[in-house]
Amino acid sequence: MKTYKMLIGGKLVGGTDSMPVINPATEDVIANAPDCTRSEMDQAVAAAKKAFPSWSATPIEQRKQVVMAISKAIQDNAAELVPLLTAEQGKPIKGAQEDVIGGAMWLMAGTQLEIPEHVIQDDDERYSFTRHIPLGVVAGIVPWNFPILLAMFKVGPALIAGNTMVLKPSPTTPLTTLRIGELIADLVPPGVLNIISGSDRLGPWLTAHKDVDKVSFTGSTATGKKVMEGAADGLKRLTLELGGNDAAIILPDVDPKKTAESLFWAGFSNSGQICIATKRYYIHDSIYDKVRDEMAAIAASVKVGDGANPDTNLGPIQNEKQYARVKDIIENAKRSGLRFAYEGGIAQGPGFFIQPHIVDNPPDDAEIVQLEQFGPIVPLMKYSDLNDAISRANATNMGLGASVWSANTEAAMDVAEQLEAGNVWINNFLHLHPLGAFAGAKQSGVGSEGGVEGALAYTQTKTFHVLKQHPNAG
Ligand code: NAD
């Protein structure tokens, strides 16, 4: 069985402890990954700290060259990385391509960004300007749903801005990230990018490490709060990309059949395991039945299976814990007497497979409406008054994304303005742009990734005031 290595200070390190990694489609152990010890983590942080002075002094154009080299290594090795990601994550090959190649493209796009410098005053008396300087050592902590794309959201801007990094993938999806570490070991100056994998003990250690200056975390809101606590002592800078409970509001003027297809994939892509998946649907009552029946028909037609199989549309739930959680949510919905527009069922193992489930018009206080399900079960709700639908959509402490569906873009924009979310899609879904800021409102996040805003989150300002006619001049 293949054993993977961590990248610490430019060296590939097997590690003292190891942990098994499971294919969620078969439940077979497919490899062993290092379970980073505290002293190995200390070495990774020390390597990042040691590399910081020279890396931050390296001209930005050279730093961008290194990021481009990482991107190229990922692209050149996609044929190996994509099936590896499918094996550990479960997603179909096409989704794994989007994750791996998307990550490489995201890195490339980030190299177009300039870190701005602002002149505040430039007159006979004084020259004052603000520069954005790097922070130091960044801990990048990544979830299991998009292991590569979400890691590259962090790696590109952190390194380009002049920071060094310790990157930690999720315990259940470490292999592709570790393999990328092996491929880039000679392309990145030692210590600039370290990759360590480990079990649940590792995240809290890393977050609280005294030499970590910033934590860039993507994961659940509950864990994000723990990260904030862990980072408090050192007053570390934070970017938190957290959970969502995205609402879609569907106006009465849409074509039910055509829209249902997009609505279905907005909620069920990656088996619902997407932070910006649609997790609640508010459908006007004049078209509710048609949209519901179309979505149910699509649910019945999709093929759930091993992602390695080319005709699979939806893979398994990524890990056993989440599988148990989604099964609980389905059981609770049944126990509460909710109606299902489509009830796909749960396959007998091996493999963490759950077919799509669509809940038919549950009450607003049902668990499936209130919490982030992060799996292939969604609730559809009726509305008759648009203002009422907007306030129901906003009645949550989450605020990651939302969408509005209408034949009238202006009317949809009016609704979009009123939705409390960091991202709103009109007649489309799941689209992100590397040059656009991606942020969560309310408890969906702190700060943003992507765009200049995301890059500046890896810097702090330093303002210089230079007196032109100074008394020390000869
Ligand atoms: P999670 O919060 O359980 O874990 C995320 C990462 O944090 C993992 O690497 C984990 O090992 C680490 N971790 C766990 N406990 C920690 C601690 N106490 N301190 C530091 N690190 C710790 O999330 P998950 O289950 O892997 O991912 C699903 C969640 O992520 C969902 O809520 C989803 O909405 C969210 N998510 C958000 C975004 C976004 O950009 N906003 C993107 C993807 C996923």
Task: Describe the protein.
The chain is α/β, with parallel strands linked by helices. Helix content is 38%, strand content 23%. The chain has 15 helices and 24 strands. It has helices at residues 38-57, 60-76, 78-89, 93-110, 147-160, 175-184, 202-208, 221-232, 256-268, 288-301, 320-335, 367-370, 386-394, 409-418, 451-456; strands at 6-8, 11-13, 18-22, 29-34, 118-122, 126-134, 137-141, 164-168, 193-195, 214-218, 237-241, 246-250, 278-284, 340-343, 357-360, 377-383, 398-399, 401-405, 423-426, 438-439, 441-442, 445-446, 448-449, 459-467. Strand 18 (401-405), helix 14 and strand 19 (423-426) form a beta-alpha-beta unit. The protein is globular. It binds nicotinamide-adenine-dinucleotide. Nicotinamide-adenine-dinucleotide binds at residues 141-145, 150, 168, 170-171, 203-204, 207, 218-220, 223, 226-227, 230, 241-244, 275, 372, 374, 400, 440, 445. Residues 141-145, 150, 168, 170-171, 203-204, 207, 218-220, 223, 226-227, 230, 241-244, 275, 372, 374, 400, 440, 445 line the site of nicotinamide-adenine-dinucleotide (NAD).
Quick summary:
The chain is an alpha/beta fold and 474 residues long. The chain has helices at 38-57, 60-76, 78-89, 93-110, 147-160, 175-184, 202-208, 221-232, 256-268, 288-301, 320-335, 367-370, 386-394, 409-418, 451-456, and strands spanning 6-8, 11-13, 18-22, 29-34, 118-122, 126-134, 137-141, 164-168, 193-195, 214-218, 237-241, 246-250, 278-284, 340-343, 357-360, 377-383, 398-399, 401-405, 423-426, 438-439, 441-442, 445-446, 448-449, 459-467.
